[in-house]
Specification:
Protein name: SAM-dependent methyltransferase
Domain Methyltransferase type: 23-123
GO molecular function, one term: methyltransferase activity
Distance between the termini: 26 Å
Strand order of the largest sheet: 3-2-1-4-5-9-8
Number of strands: 9
GO biological process, one term: methylation
Strand content: 15-25%
Helix content: 25-40%
Keywords: Methyltransferase, S-adenosyl-L-methionine, Transferase
Length: 234
Amino acid sequence: MVARQLEEQIVGRFPVGQRLRVLDVGMGQGTQALRLARAGHQITGLEQDPTMIAAARTALSGEPEGIRERMRIIEGDGRDTGVHFLPGSFDVVLCHGVLMYVEEPDPLLAGLARVLAPGGLLSLLVRNGDALAMRPGLSGDWAGALASFDTTAYRNRLGLDVRADRLSTLTATLAGIGAPLHAWYGVRVFTDTAADGAEAPADLEALLAVEEKAGRTDPYRGVAALLHLCGVRG
């Protein structure tokens, strides 16, 4: 879903065929970075976890030379973009699945906006702080659901204590750093309670169509497990 939504924003903002400079902060194993490199863009991946870096390098090593040349991987913390990059260095900045691990996200977001060129796209994927009660509630954990209403703290599937973000708070933050919200989507509206590693259903395309529609339709997107926010640098 995120790939489809991101592609929609890129196609709507940049000329067809333009090779974009993309920064992927907290790139993990490089799924989005590799996809964009295959599409012809110049990618910089920033990651601090050695295990994830190793996985990304392994995946990259299996790609054709032209794709390998379009992607570089830097070991570092997403909060230190000012150390690695000049202002306005990138047309697109991705920060997917990172903010939940950052206690104070505003400085990180300001740093991301700083390295974004005017008119550039900032793509954030965050845990939806307005819908934390949905997962435990749908699983029949009534005590857990009740405790989720008045907090943005939660324990993720890895057993880590992390935090979520509310749409209203991030909207204000993006406006304050000069990259106001342009579009937003819900991700995992109906599928958040699916078991990790579950096999893809036979009707996968129908499932994706429903999730795609729900992710851009009110009121469904407001209760999605994740929010995909796209800001544009003024």
